[in-house]
Amino acid sequence: MKQGIPVPLVRANQWVMVGGILLAILLQSQLLLTLLFIISLLALLFGPKGNVVFVLTKPLLKNRLAAAEQEAAELQRFNQSIATILLGLAVGILWTTGHWSGWIPAGMVMVAAAFALAGYCIGCTIYFQWKQWRHTQRS
User: Fold this and answer.
1) Which one of 29, 56, 96, 121 is most buried, counting C-beta atoms within 10 A?
2) Domain with 69 in it
């Protein structure tokens, strides 16, 4: 059985993305968005041990983690990949052109994380469709 990621840590990460991106948009801070991209990239490259949000919130959530439900690590990695790609695209557009359209992919990450906090995982839907497509291609 593959090990999962405790839901409170996943939620903390989602809250950081929603709050951080919203703040970056309101302040028009490319630097803050770049920081969020780096945090996301570290999590993608090094897994849960490299996730800055997990490392910082784990001591605060210690009492809740032992009995917490687990999210599938593979699914979380897929979602993290989408978020990292979109944040990278946003940062790239903003730093190279300064055009407002760079905020669109960042907003997409924020909306997806907000939906996940509300109970609907957009990335999970995409993941399911992708797995189903791969299965039919192999058949």
Assistant:
1) 121
2) 4-138
